[in-house]
Write a structure and sequence with these properties.
The chain is of the alpha/beta class and 319 residues long. The chain folds into 2 domains: 181 residues, Thiamin diphosphate (ThDP)-binding fold, Pyr/PP domains (Rossmann fold); 124 residues, Rossmann fold (3-Layer(aba) Sandwich), CATH 3.40.50. The protein is built from 12 helices and 14 strands. The strands form 3 sheets. Strands 3-2-4-5-7-6-12 form a 7-stranded mixed β-sheet, with helices on both faces. A 5-stranded mixed β-sheet has the order 9-11-10-13-14, with helices on both faces. Helix 3 packs parallel to helix 4 and helix 9 crosses helix 10. 50% of the residues are buried.
Length: 319
Amino acid sequence: MTLMSIVEASRRALADEMRRDPTVWALGEDLRRGGVFQQYKGLQAEFGPARVCDTPISEAAIMGAAVGAAMCGTRPVIETRYLDFTLCAADELVNQAAKARYMFGGQARVPIVVRQPTGLWMNCAAQHSQSLEAWWAHMPGLVALAPATPADSYAMLKAAIRCDDPVILLEHKELWGVTGEVEEGEPDARLGQARICRSGSDVTIVAWSATVAVCLEAAEALARDRIGAEVIDLRCIWPWDQETILASTAKTKRLLVVHEAVLAAGFGAEIAASVAEATGARVKRLGSPRIPVPFSPALEAAFRRTPEEVAAAALGLAS
């Protein structure tokens, strides 16, 4: 086990896979300089510009080239710089990559990894701060992952690269510096499996990405009020781990889903509805207001969901 940050874990995972498999390569803007968050630092020096490839400023061209290269037998890792910019390549991702296996009767696969730095980060405003995981969950043919720890960042990037379907990897911008123990080599990263971060018997709290830490802090506060919150890191947006969530909710009879994304039509609605239909448990969602992410530090702070809000919502369910 090695202590490292999420940015270092993701860098090592990509380097490991590029050493293991010569068909793995990366493309995007500014990779020569290490990427916006230095997640590619040193990789072009080791693997050369043909495998760590700087591209023109055209997300549609980047995605289209990667989709074609994947269908020809390589495994591209696409850097989009910010999740928001992926929307410039939505046709190539949604209408080509996601549908190719179905439309070609299984004769073609598109094993791409689309890395999307997601979520709030240092007052980056409405065009650089969105959380759009529900968009990708809605699209048949895509896998969507949201690691929250260095161990998951390492293991899930490796698993994503080896997956034969297009994978969206949602990497929260405020988590790059988070440190933790990482098992290098061949870690277990079964896609579609949630992780129980904290056990409890009174209320189930489900979150993913940066919101997991918020919910764990809320669970500490709830414990002081003798409320046992079971906190689950979903990890995979699609496919999502219904079995773990349903088992926990069957025990607690209460479910709170928390996400940074806008509450309206967020992925929390899918989880809440599925649990309510299957168990009849009391359910509640907590998300952000349906507004563009503000630039103002004070307004951005109001946009964020806090541990106090999570604890209050869970306490309301448990009472």
